[in-house]
Write a structure and sequence with these properties.
Structural class: alpha+beta
Number of domains: 1
Order of helices and strands: EEHE
Strand order of the largest sheet: 2-1-3
Helix content: 10-25%
Distance between the termini: 9 Å
Number of helices: 1
Radius of gyration: 11 Å
Protein name: Acetone carboxylase
Number of strands: 3
Organism: Microlunatus kandeliicorticis
Length: 56
């Protein structure tokens, strides 16, 4: 599982991050979508000890 952290600089402050969770299969598609728009900021793996892991 991956946490794709992004923001839209036209409507979000630079420090704001929105999160999309993606499996290994869908990570490349979502990364491409966000990158093409200049929205992707960080991508981090979601580990077993990460609170976001409970969202699955």
């Amino acid at each position: 599982m991956w946490d794709l952290r992004w923001n839209n600089p036209k409507i979000h402050t630079p420090d704001r991050r929105k999160h999309w969770l993606a499996c290994d299969e869908h990570r490349p598609t979502l990364t491409s979508f966000l990158s093409a728009r200049g929205f992707l900021r960080e991508t981090e793996p979601v580990g077993a000890d990460d609170p976001l892991d409970d969202a699955t």
